[in-house]
Amino acid sequence: MVENNKTFQIVANIVMILLTLCCLFPFLLLVMSSLTDETTLIREGYSIFPSKFGLESYAYLMRNVGKIGRAYGITVFVTIVGTTSSMLLTILMAYPLSRKELYGRNILAFFVFFTMLFNGGLVPTYIMYTRYLHIKNTMWALIFPALLVSAFYVIMMRTYFTTNIPDAVIEAARIDGAGEWRILFTIVLPLSLPMIATLALLIGLGYWNDWKNGLYYLTDTRLYSIQNMLNQMLKDVQFLKSGADSSAAAELTQDMPSVGIKMAIAVIGALPVMAVYPFFQKYFVKGITIGAVKG
Question: Looking at 173-182, 209-218, 238-247, which range is the least confident one?
Answer without folding.
Answer: 238-247
